[in-house]
Every structure is written in structure tokens, then in C-alpha cells.
Structure prediction request, 634 residues.
Amino acid sequence: MATVDLDNIKKRFGATEVIKSVSLNVQDGEFVVIVGPSGCGKSTLLRMVAGLETISEGELRINGTRANDLEPMDRDIAMVFQNYALYPHMSVAQNMGYGLKIAGLPKPEIAAKVAEAARLLQLTELLDRKPKQLSGGQRQRVAMGRAIVRAPSVFLFDEPLSNLDAKLRVQMRLEIKELQSKLGITSLYVTHDQVEAMTMADRMIVMNGGVAEQIGTPLDVYERPETLFAAQFIGSPSMNVIAAEAREGTLHFGGVTLPAPTGITGPVMLGLRPEHLSPHPDGPVEMQVMLAEPLGANTLLHGKLASGAGFTASLPGVHRVMPGEAPLRLSIEPQNLHLFDAETGRRIG
Amino acid sequence: MAREITGMVERRGAGLWLTHLLMIIGVLVIFFPIWLAFVASTVTQPEIVQPPMPLWPGDRFVENYTAALFSGVNVPVLTMLANSMVMAIGIAVGKIIISLLSAFAIVYFRFPARNIFFWLIFLTLMLPVEVRIVPTYEVIAGFGMLNSYSGLIFPLIASATATFLFRQFFLTVPDELAEAARVDGAGAMRFFWDILLPMSRTNVAALFVILFIYGWNQYLWPLLITTDPSMNTIVMGIKQMFPSGDDVADWPVIMATSILAMVPPVVVVISMQKLFIRGLVDSEK
Prediction:
């Protein structure tokens, strides 16, 4: 059980700054997901917490003690790697018990702890197998088991599900989340998959270009994205963003007028989530539908606005599109409009 | 390998017989001199020198081999076999240890001039023993290691080839394994011993076979530094048995020695064949 505090953490490789000052306080038992596109520095951040990368500047505290210069094994952490990193020549039991063996625990104690973790992860039958003889999901479980066995203060996950197929990913996602809340171990979880981030996180950090764009609960980030990047990264399909002009309580773009919060004037970026749009005969937004993607429960409609800008709407149920059909009229609730500064991309309303 | 597989899958009828016929002829051609040597080692001296040479084994097997093993021409063959064994195993084991450790250092540690060191090692690939034999002799003589096992072994122990081979293998080992070991609390040598070494075992076995034969077949170097007959190795010993001037060659004993000299490498190859082929074909990850 532990807290993890990152205090203005920076990372430089030579002259390039890959992490530009990230601060975060992870509470005891909290599950924090670091999410962002590839190359945003999320893995580097995790590896700095693990002690696999040095911290160029700033302070890392695990359980209140400065951990910048501690070896990974002295940080009381366990890590699950993307490719599982199981030792190929060791059996499942040996893989799980290796850390304990190094720590010098007596054999019966190691066996007991491994058996306990194996029971928790339903690996008991597989303890004598080699990693080669396991399926992807089973390997993933062994990697988890290796982390659990040592009863660490902090779990670190580096994209642990990205090598699994979609169905298994959903299942393992639930298992990891369930396990974490059962064990109550503070966790940091890196992923590029926003669905994983939304479903698993107590809180998440949206990272982009070495900067934490927003830190908050998944619903916070979804409902009130602080930046244009966070707005577009979280949510699927991603948010429609249109350049608009704000005047005295109204928004204008391509002949469309929408209500706007007062006190904002000048050019803004307007964000509309596809799932917040609904068909309405007098709707202000007019969209020429080009393509429909039926997903069963809802349908994604891709098309163009009158101004020619690309636009996506997600409507419940099934919608068929005929070529040459009249444009679809859509309306949106005023509270679902997101406004961002056209230059800085920060939220203004 | 590939040919063997197409053979198993596709060849039928006449093609199959033809390949086998060619293979058998090939084996006979290669095997015939060895057969002659074996025949010569089981007959008497007059039978060899009198044409035509016999083609079937005689009845002197036990006598000739006992004579070779226990008295030989200059030294008992048993002594030379033991010397060769010590040298070959010493070279093979030494080379493997040194190259494993240096490859480990080059791949897993960041230290100044790391690349320069690697290229220096790599450069020595181009310098065979024969090129540096005179200075090496000077050094060994200076250390007083003539006529000793250390003198036979040490100059041949550094191996750029093996270092390079292990380096290439270590590079294919995912970085995450080293990181996982670090998180598990394993220090560098612990990681080497517990994880890297077991993963390299097929490579080690393959290399052991190659290097054992390399060591066993050393001729020039032992010839230079062993003047005491009791330190002779078997490969040079055979040459020493040849008559010079008016001596009469004891051909049956020489042939018995030759056959005996072949036995250890053959045993090593056959006993380690499985691991050897696995080591050459796949690098188990």
C-alpha cells in the first residue's frame, strides 16, 4: 500500500526534452491510467517510476520517501511488461517465484506464495509449463502473477494488453481491474487505448508531447476536456472540431448559428461529440451523409457540413443512407458544446 | 536442411534411388582412406609394405593398439591423447567463458569506448594464429610457459568469432527480460547466470563442439612450444612418428595412432549432435 508522488518530473535524452514537467499525486490504492498516442512519453514516465530510466529533474516519492536514486528492486514495485518478459527457460512457477528466490526467501515459503497467486489467477494447472506452451492470455496472467507474488506497494503496467486479441483484451481488462480493487494495490497503467483508460481508471492522465494535458476522472475528462487534444483523444468516435466565430452569445460557422455562453468573442474551436448529436427536423447543423457504419446498437454517419468540413455523427439504432439523399439536420443540447481557445487549445467554455 | 526436407516431401521412385546411390558413393569415397588406415592398423608391417595392400582387417588389432597406446613410437599414445584432451577442452571451455563474458559486457553495459573495444575484438578476427605466432612465442617463452598446458591453452583462448556470435545472440534477447530481472532484484551477474546463460545453452553446446575440434586439431602451435615429448599432442605426435632418414616406420602403430586420434572428436560430435544442430539452426528465445 503506498502513495506515489511525481513532482515536476522531467526527462531529457541529450538535448531533447521528452517529458516536460509532469506532476501527479497517486493516492493509496488508486488506479491511475496514463493514456496518450505513441511517442507522447507515457512509457518513459512509467519507466522512470520503475527506475528503469533515470529522472533528469524533479522528485519521485514512493510512500513519501524520495525514490529518484533507488534501484528498481528497492522501490517496492512490480512491473508487467507489454511483451510479458517471461523467462523462457523457466517454468511458470519459477518465473513467478524468481523475485522471491533472489530476495532469499526459503523454498517452502516461495512455493506457498506462488501457489496462492496461481490460485488467484487460475494458473494452478499450468505451474509446470514453460512460457512457450502458454497462450497469450495465459502468459499475460503469469506476468501478472509474477507481479502479485511479491506483494509490492505499487503495480506498474506497461501496455499489458496490447498484444492480445480484442475479445481477450476486454476480458483481461476486467480481470486486472477486479484484481487490483481486490488487492487494493496502488497502480499506474500505461495504455494508448482510450477505452481501456476510460473503463479501468480511477483517474487518468492524458499525455501529449511530454505534457500532461489533463488529469482527472474518466468522466471528468470526457465531460469537461481541458484541452482540445484531450477532447479529441478521449471518446470514440473522436470529437468533431470546427473553427467558429463567437459573437455576443452566439456561435457562427458555415451558415450555422448556435447558442454560446456569454462573454466569449472572437475565433474559437468548437467541439461537438458525435454521440451528442440527435436528428431534428429544425436542427441547426446540416450534414450531407456520405457513409454509414452500422454498429448494431448505433450507427456512425460520416459526411460533410455545408462548409465542406468533415463531420461525424453517432445516432442510436439503425440508419440507412441512400445516395443523393437530402442533408440530415441535427441538433445538439447547448450544455454539450465544448469551446476551446483557437490559439492555445485550452478550454474556455 | 532444405534439401533434406524437399527430399522427404517430394522425391519418389527413381529420383529417390538416384539420390541414395549418389549419397552412398560419396560416403564410400570419403570413408575409403579411413578404412585403409583401419586395415593397416590391424596387420603386420611386412603385409603393409608388400603390394598389393590388404583390403580386409588382419588379426593384429589387439597387439598393434596395445603397442600404440602404451609404448608408441616416441611417447605412449595415451599420454598424447591426454595432452590433446586437456588442450582441446581447455581451449573450448576458456574460449566460451571469455567470449560469453566479453559479449555480455559489450551488449549490456554502457562504458566509455564500448564500440571501440568491440571493433578491436572484431579486428582480431582477421589475424589468425599463424600471423601472430612469432610474437606470441616470444611472450610465452618469456613467461616460462613452454612445455606446459597453460602455454598450449592461453594463447589460443581469446576468440573474436565466439564473442561476435554471442553478441549477436544477446542482441536478440528482448531488453524487457533484463529489465524484468532488474525489477525482480537480480544484479548484473545474477541475470547473466540465471537467465542469459541458460538461454544460450544451445549456442554454447554448438560452439563447444566447433571449438573442441579446433583445439584438438591444433598443429603448428603445439609443434612450436612443446619440445618435451611428454607434452606432445596427438595431432603433432602423428607427424613426429613419421620416419626421418634411415629409421624404419612402424606403419601399423602409426595407423593405429591415427585411428585413435579420430575417436575423441567423433565422440564429441556424436554425443552433442542434437544440441549442436539446435544451436546452429534456431536460437531458442
Observations:
- The helical segments of chain A are 42-50, 92-102, 107-120, 136-149, 166-183, 194-200, 218-223, 228-233.
- Residues 166-183 of chain A form the longest helix (18 residues).
- The interface with chain B takes residues 50-52, 71-73, 77-79, 81-89, 98-99, 102-103, 146, 150 of chain A (CB under 8 Å).
